[in-house]
Design goal:
With about 550 residues, the chain is an alpha/beta fold. The strands form six sheets. Strands 12-14-4-5-6-9-10-11-13 form a nine-stranded parallel sheet. A six-stranded antiparallel sheet has the order 17-20-21-26-23-24, covered by helices on one side.
């Protein structure tokens, strides 16, 4: 594997020289990630940019005529960024002959609506499968080896142990990035690129091809062992436990270093997917160094490796990917499960800013987006299937209808709010003056969080029909605009009250609550709420339709004895 990593670097150098561009440094004006205060933010044209995104269905972007009526609808949904697949089979239908007409059409469609793009490279893998590779790759199993099951059967997945496959993928991706630099290097329609999609193997925990068997019996590569030793105190607990339980060895085979549990197979595959992706990513960045990432399909409760995408960038494998694919800016979770805060928090690390490329939409998505931007200082959020209804698959299992769908009113309303206050959100992310309280599922009867010197308590409130939905997902995001002043954005029907545990007067009162209407780029004062509308000055009531009304609240608190 050490030789494979050096081979990947050689491929990058050869590709760069062949295109005559060398390994130029990142231009100062390119989209990039930058640490600003307490947040890592996406910088576009010199300014922080909050991605209010939506991902297309897998096949939508393959037909420009199909997309023609979709673009205006996406703009009307208040998106500023569309996540769009670009397939290897589309740009290189014949080996060595590239056709970028589809890519150019996507750029044209997005620009016509003043939208940005995040391109999703469906190269060697998409949802573990290799269904988006060109026909000339699919038909040539002698050159492009397949992952095998333990009984020797081939699968619809290319093996990450094939340098031939990696080099072919890297050449195509490098050509794509070179083309993007030529046609978009000054306009910056494309902000970031996802490399591959939800990699991993199923239905077994690892590839059983001869190359994989040999790699498993070989010593764990030194770069990974050095990373473990250097980052021991910050490793994901699951990874650290596996390594330390086996003796925290600094040399040995995979089973000697990580033990004989099924987890070892998943870590083994993670390293080899990571180093494959590193070769592809580095090849593309040699021509156009946009921010790049890869995404993870998450684990259902109590599933074992092989029942999920074994080898993907799951939380316990993030450190493996950091070691094996250093050219990636971050790893991103696709979150469809109920315990959103738990999953999202595991990807919001000091070395890994949160970006959610796939998620549910609707009221659930709106609450999750507020939590992402407020509590976790996310770079962006993106419901899947934003262009219409369809079936979402993770691994081999359907998880229901698409996350958003054409005309998603909840996400449209929320994005309309957030677009108007995005500069303030970004400013408060950097200052650390932003937070969100989230309530998930019926088991959570109350929410609690800190906002400056105050504690906020949140409960569900009655909806339009007069009843309280105890299973609804609700959220409130707080932007601190003064020592005792907060701008509040809500999703769902909720009641907020305030307390403190800081020294001084022990009781918190509400000085004032003012409606703020977001109109024509301005924040216009509305009613001063009091009396019955505030529980006689004791609480703030949020309504599910506040977002649709482009309404937020400015709350001033005080303390007394």
């Amino acid at each position: 594997m050490f030789r494979m990593m050096w081979s990947a670097r050689l491929v990058v150098a050869v590709l760069a020289l062949s295109f005559g561009l060398g390994t130029q440094a990142r231009a100062a004006d390119l989209p990039r990630l930058e640490r600003r205060g307490k947040a890592t933010q996406l910088i576009v044209d010199g300014k922080p940019f909050l991605v209010l995104g939506g991902e297309l269905h897998n096949s939508s972007s393959s037909d420009l005529a199909y997309m023609a009526p979709i673009w205006p609808k996406l703009k009307a949904m208040n998106l500023n960024t569309v996540l769009a697949p670009v397939a290897w089979e589309t740009i290189e239908p014949q080996e060595g002959r590239f056709d970028f007409s589809n890519v150019d059409g996507l750029l044209k469609g997005a620009r016509a609506q003043n939208l940005r793009l995040v391109l999703l490279w469906f190269g060697a893998w998409k949802n573990t499968y290799s269904s988006y590779v060109p026909a000339w790759v699919k038909r040539d199993q002698a050159r492009f080896a397949r992952a095998q099951t333990s009984d020797g059967r081939g699968t619809e997945r290319l093996s990450p142990f094939s340098t031939t496959t990696r080099d072919a993928d890297a050449r195509a991706f490098a050509a794509l990035m070179r083309h993007l630099r030529a046609v978009d290097g000054t306009q910056h329609t494309v902000l970031m690129v996802q490399v591959e999609n939800e990699v991993g193997v199923i239905p077994e925990a690892r590839d059983h091809s001869p190359a994989a068997d040999a790699a498993l019996a070989a010593p764990v590569p030194e770069p990974l062992l050095r990373y473990l030793a250097a980052h021991r105190t910050t490793l994901h607990p699951t990874l650290r436990t596996a390594w330390e339980t086996a003796g925290a060895r600094t040399a040995g085979t995979w089973h000697e270093v990580f033990g004989d549990a099924a987890m070892t197979d998943s870590l083994f595959m993670a390293w080899h997917y990571a180093t494959f992706i590193e070769g592809v990513t580095a090849a593309g960045k040699a021509h156009y160094p946009l921010p790049m990432f890869t995404n993870a399909a998450l684990i259902r409760p109590n599933y074992e490796p092989g029942q999920y995408n074994s080898g993907g960038p799951l939380p316990f494998a993030i450190d493996v990917y950091k070691a094996g694919a250093p050219s990636l800016e971050f790893l991103a979770p696709d979150i469809y499960f109920e315990d959103y805060a738990n999953w999202a928090s595991q990807y919001a690390r000091a070395d890994n800013p949160l970006f959610v490329p796939e998620a549910r939409g609707g009221m659930v998505g709106a609450a999750n987006a507020l939590y992402s931007f407020g509590a976790l200082k996310a770079v962006g959020f993106s419901p899947f299937g934003i262009d219409g209804q369809g079936v979402v698959l993770q691994g081999d299992a359907s998880i229901g209808l698409s996350a958003a769908g054409e005309g998603d009113p909840a996400m449209t309303a929320l994005y309309g709010q957030l677009a108007r206050i995005a500069p303030l959100i970004l400013e408060k992310q950097a200052e650390g003056g932003i937070s969100t309280v989230l309530m998930e599922g019926g088991a959570q009867r109350a929410g609690r969080g800190r906002i400056g010197d105050y504690i906020v308590n949140m409960t569900r409130a009655s909806g339009a029909k007069g009843d309280v939905d105890q299973t609804s997902r609700i959220a409130a995001m707080f932007l601190q605009t003064g020592a005792d002043e907060f701008l509040i954005v809500g999703s769902g029907d909720a009641q907020l009250s305030f307390a403190t545990d800081r020294p001084g007067a022990p009781i918190v009162g509400i000085e004032s609550i003012d409606e703020q209407w977001l109109r024509d780029g301005q924040m216009v004062a509305g009613r001063r709420l009091n009396g019955d509308e505030t529980g006689q000055g004791q609480s703030l009531r949020l309504f599910a339709d506040d977002a649709g009304d482009n309404k937020v609240y400015r709350v001033r608190l005080y303390r007394y004895r």
